[in-house]
Backbone:
């Protein structure tokens, strides 16, 4: 008679034998956690790239008995040395435009009387204009400027620190909480994840249930199958987006300046890509478990690198390249444009164009796979 | 190409890796025939049917249906294909499944009448609004048949339509087959049940992707000098000879 312990071992043995034959699962167990941890470790650490800061230095040097003093220039020097910032010296007329276009994430204005006031012992207030749509970036700019100011003051004997920063925000600002900044990313992330999962599992069932065989024998073409799926699932993608959006606005009461119609348009474009990616990848899975295994490879990197939390431009170059081919990057960027910056359709066309191009590419890949299969 | 034949398979070979599911097989079927593919599991019956349905590509050789090389969209509209396992959408009702197929094949205006007619034929009128999920295996099989029949195909491909079906249902399925055949539809039926093969006008005995012999059940028995198809099959298998068609 077998004891309970033996029976337990029999079951455990079978599971180990079964799983060890599934090479993909073993690969995932070994490779994915290391990759994810490496990525997370990098993202959470502080050694990310510098953020673009514009500086308009109108400061005039003051001649003292000890020589000429130009503190504005010295401050620019400190800012240049900062690892947090990448400095662009601007003229007074051009900074607003650059800030609006997001080419610089902040602008520091050094007025003409900066040195004069400081050497005469008066306090000085410096205006720091932040782009403000990315809390991580805005924080990095503020930290960089504050540290440079500290360095400047430390050089000066006496150690007085009469300089204060008057910070203003182009977008967002003090009224915005963490959630307000993250909402665009959540919407894009959820929609992408949900639609991808729904489509890939549905299509897998179409294959495993044999109904794809009947479709293949019918007069329906592969392209028609893929486009039919696209149309059907887009409705659910849009519904998902609407639920998340309305919940965020009316229940979580997020700050929201743009148009709901534009948000839906962006989400619809993202859905097109997600549906077809789902169809395309479902060919590489034999069952639902294998579909679930795509999640750490397809969805999580996009959430980490797509600008949900960490702005893409602060990532290391190779990760930026990776982010540049991910649809979520463009969806999050377009949604931030609309929801936080209040941009209109014309301003998000480039992001929409990428999402559309991605969707078309995925339609092509899905059709090719379908053609190979049947 | 000969217009008298609705199906012309020329030296069809289909390899899956090293395994040859079809091995240079040639087949011609005339319009109006009930042609049975008889052979054990793995003899290539399903692969042959799939090749005729145009859902797989041959490694070499050609398949012509109604004079056209498949896959062809024009031909596809006139072919009905019943897969071995019921290929149905579980979350849809019987009627929705059949009507989906009807519309795939372009039956727009007349679709509803025709769906009702087919459901009547397979005796599923009363279960028409039930979800497929709750149906028994036999009812699924009949729904599957209804899907393959709904567009009145000229050629009906039936891959082991009676597997796992009780004797009464098997009897009634064969009644449907004979009925649609009388209405002019050519049938290709694969089976590994000898008595089913007896009901066909002509059969091909399959083994390892080839025909061991071809002919009417009576001819095959006579040629082998046996009284029943089973012993005839064993005779041809023992001979190991591959005959062409007549």
Residues:
């Amino acid at each position: 008679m077998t004891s309970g312990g033996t029976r337990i071992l029999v079951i455990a043995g079978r599971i180990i034998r079964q799983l060890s034959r599934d090479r993909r699962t073993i690969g995932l167990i070994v490779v994915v956690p290391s990759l994810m941890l490496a990525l997370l470790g990098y993202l959470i650490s502080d050694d990310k790239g510098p953020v673009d800061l514009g500086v308009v230095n109108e400061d005039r040097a003051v001649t003292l008995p000890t020589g000429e003093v130009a503190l504005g220039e010295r401050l620019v020097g400190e800012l240049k040395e900062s690892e947090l910032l990448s400095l662009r010296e601007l003229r007074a007329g051009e900074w607003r435009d650059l800030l609006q276009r997001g080419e610089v994430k902040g602008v520091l204005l050094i007025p003409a009387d900066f040195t004069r006031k400081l050497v005469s012992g008066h306090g000085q207030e410096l205006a720091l204009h932040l782009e403000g749509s990315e809390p991580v970036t805005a924080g990095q700019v503020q930290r960089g400027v504050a540290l440079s100011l500290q360095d400047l003051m430390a050089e000066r004997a006496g150690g007085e620190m009469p300089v204060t920063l008057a910070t203003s925000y182009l977008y967002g600002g003090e009224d915005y909480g963490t959630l307000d900044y993250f909402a665009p990313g959540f919407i894009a992330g959820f929609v992408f994840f949900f639609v991808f999962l729904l489509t890939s599992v549905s299509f897998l069932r179409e294959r495993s249930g044999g109904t794809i065989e009947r479709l293949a024998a019918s007069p329906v073409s592969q392209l028609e199958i893929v486009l039919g799926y696209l149309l059907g699932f887009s409705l659910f993608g849009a519904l998902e987006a609407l639920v998340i959006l309305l919940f965020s606005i009316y229940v979580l009461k997020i700050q929201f300046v743009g148009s709901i119609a534009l948000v839906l348009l962006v989400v619809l474009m993202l859905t097109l890509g997600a549906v077809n990616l789902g169809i395309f990848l479902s060919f590489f899975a034999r069952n639902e478990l294998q579909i679930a295994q795509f999640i750490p490879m397809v969805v999580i990197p996009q959430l980490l690198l797509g600008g949900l939390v960490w702005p893409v431009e602060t990532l290391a170059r190779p990760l930026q390249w990776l982010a540049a081919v991910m649809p979520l990057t463009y969806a999050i960027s377009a949604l931030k444009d609309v929801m936080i910056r209040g941009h209109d359709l014309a301003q998000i066309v480039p992001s929409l164009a990428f999402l559309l191009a991605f969707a078309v590419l995925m339609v092509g890949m899905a059709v090719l796979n379908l053609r190979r299969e049947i | 190409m000969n217009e008298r034949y609705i199906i012309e398979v020329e030296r069809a070979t289909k390899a899956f890796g090293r395994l040859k599911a079809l091995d240079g097989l040639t087949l011609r079927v005339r319009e109006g025939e009930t042609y049975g593919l008889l052979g054990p599991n793995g003899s290539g019956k399903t692969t042959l049917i799939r090749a005729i349905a145009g859902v797989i590509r041959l490694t070499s050789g050609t398949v012509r249906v109604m004079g056209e090389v498949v896959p062809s969209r024009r031909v596809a509209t006139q072919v009905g294909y019943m897969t071995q396992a019921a290929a149905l959408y579980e979350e849809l009702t019987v009627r929705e499944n059949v009507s989906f197929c009807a519309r795939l094949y372009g039956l727009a205006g007349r679709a509803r009448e025709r769906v009702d007619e087919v459901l009547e034929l397979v005796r599923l009128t009363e279960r028409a609004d039930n979800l497929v999920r709750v149906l028994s295996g036999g009812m699924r099989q009949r729904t599957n048949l209804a899907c393959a029949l709904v567009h009145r195909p000229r050629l009906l491909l039936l891959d082991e339509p009676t597997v796992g079906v009780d004797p009464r249902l098997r009897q009634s399925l064969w009644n449907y087959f004979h009925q649609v055949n009388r209405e002019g539809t050519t049938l290709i039926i694969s089976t590994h049940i000898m008595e089913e093969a007896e009901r066909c006008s002509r059969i091909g005995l399959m083994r390892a992707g080839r025909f061991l012999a071809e002919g009417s059940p009576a001819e095959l028995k006579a040629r082998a000098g046996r009284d029943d198809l089973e012993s005839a099959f064993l005779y041809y298998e023992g001979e190991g000879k591959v005959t062409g068609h007549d």
Observations:
- Chain B touches chain A at residues 50, 53-56, 73, 76-77, 79, 81, 83, 85-90, 101, 104-106, 147, 157 (CB under 8 Å).
- Chain B has nine helices and ten strands.
- Residues 22 and 48 of chain B are 7 Å apart (CA to CA).
